[in-house]
Amino acid sequence: MAKEFPHKQHAHCENGSLCNLLRNEGVEISEPLVFGTGSGIFFAHMPFIKNQGIPLTSFRILPGKIYWNATKNLGIKMAKHQYKNPQKAMDELDEMLLKGKPVGLLTNLYYLPYFPQEYRFHYNSHNTIIYRKENGHYLVSDPVLEKTTTISYYDLMKARFAKGVLHLKGDMYYPLSIPEQSNIQKAIKKGIKTTINLMIKNPVPYHGITGISFLAKKIRKWETSLDEETLKLFLGNIIRMQEETGTGGAGFRFIYAAFLLEAAKVLKDDRFRQLSENISTAGDNWRAFALHAAKICKDRGNRKEEFDYMVNILKDIAELEKNTYKELKNIISK
Amino acid sequence: MKEKDLYIDFKPQQQVYYVEKEDQSYGPIISGSYTTKNFLDDYWYKKNNLEQSLRRQLQDEEISPVYYYMLLQEIGPGDLAKRVGISIRKLKKHCKPQYFKKVRLNQLLKYAEVFNIPFVNLFQTFLVKQDKKEQNKVEQIQTKNPYYSITKIVAE
Questions:
Q1: Which residue in the set A10, A165, A243 is minimally distant from B16, CB to CB?
Q2: Which terminus, N or C, of chain A has the lesser number of Cβ atoms within 10 Å?
């Protein structure tokens, strides 16, 4: 009888697929640890990059980078394949499954029929795991779902070869070798260093801490410059990116707080506990920001007061996160 | 955020959140989303209004089906053009009804594939009466012929 895949639900697909693949190999690693060593936390608001006329806001680094950074820092060797021919991509997937090797795939979320139609959108970097083939159907362990599910050959092939932004070439990955004794301390420090560089040493004014202050200024301008419908679309998009895209709450701030707590245990340094609390407070503030933005979207409350609150809280978040990363830098560099 | 402050009872969308637990450790819980629970009705209301307004424009030949689906599925023109394999200029032409009439069948098929709809749905919309939605379901089966699909009205 085939071994049952150890499926577990996670907040985010990229962390989750790596955690589940490693668990299948007998390595238990938590989602916050993958996220932290993968330097996942970030902020960017780029008004010149638009989708449907809505400016891009992101709370994480580029898709695929968490996986790349985490495996590199933890010393895990991964195999990664891309294909030109969809048929070949499906054949090689079948070969891997015949060998009993579950694999991670990059897919377009819109073409995955096991998600309810109303929650699907065209996003080309959704990570999912295929762990077996039975009766012509693939068994799926999607890390953001509570239970495993199935998908047909045709639907999977379509989802693996979607074109457009971040167009897919049947990307498939799986662990090749996992070191018996991973140097987690070193991996944590490396992950934090990259995060510090991205958040406080980033020269791009739309990225990191300066990006948060930039958004505060932008929101102040939106109050007078945007019409009602556009304003709601822009604010609604920020709320969606912050709370509804598998962030674990507050734009990944809560996952990062959990990571810093783990770092305190692994590195045996209680100073990380205080910094974890700071990031958690920043997360609470991000949530308060989202709730006030949602009030504007639903025409509730006093508009002027809501805008003042949102701008001020963003400034507070920028200050708090800046001080936290500076403190992290001091601890790490010693 | 504390576990008791974050937990939301909302079954339709369950996600993993990281919270501070009673014993002061940080860990995952499965909860509904606050924003989804409280603001989803507003989202559906707006989406429904958008769909109705687009359908009216489609009926009055003010927009093409390409534009209708592009807006409903929230794909940007640049992204859609890449997916279909044409220039943005050409795509913008296809969004206008007078040019949509001249689009080749094989190109329309590519649009249908990207939108993940049967080919014929570029020319029709199925509506089920609101009060009969539970009893009557429209089921569309794609055949091997990409230009041909079978529609079944399933009455329960």
A1: A10
A2: N
Give the predicted TM-score (pTM) of the model.
0.88
- How many CB atoms are located within 10 Å of the residue A209 CB? 23
Q: How far is B120 from B129, CA to CA, in rounded Å?
A: 21
- Taking the CA of residue B127 and the nearest CA in chain A, the distance in Å comes to 16
* pLDDT tens digits for range A250-289: 899 999 999 999 999 999 999 999 999 999 999 999 999 9
| Cα separations in angstroms, B54 against A270, A283, B48, B120, B135 | 57, 38, 10, 18, 27
Tell me which chain A residue has its CA closest to the CA of residue B144.
Answer: A154
ipTM over 0.90 threshold: no
CB A271 within 8 A of CB B34: no
Of A50, A111, A254, the CB nearest to B17: A254
| Shortest distance, CA B1 to any CA of chain A (angstroms) | 6
Beta strand pairing call for A41-51 and A54-60:
antiparallel
Cα separation, A175 vs A156, whole angstroms: 21
Q: Closest Cα to residue A61, out of A170, A198, A241?
A: A198
Cα B54 to Cα B59: distance, rounded to the nearest angstrom = 9
Contact call for residues B19 and B27 (beta carbons, < 8 A): yes
Both tokens of residue A211?
A: 């990006």
Tens-place pLDDT, residues A69-97: 999 999 999 999 999 999 999 999 999 99
Q: How far apart are CA A122 and CA A168, in angstroms?
A: 12
- Rounded Cα distance between B17 and A246, Å, is 8
Q: State whether residue A284 sits within 8 Å of chain B by CB.
A: yes
3-state secondary structure of A14: helix
| Residue A297 to residue B83, Cβ atoms within 8 A | no
Of A10, A111, A280, Cβ closest to residue B20 = A280
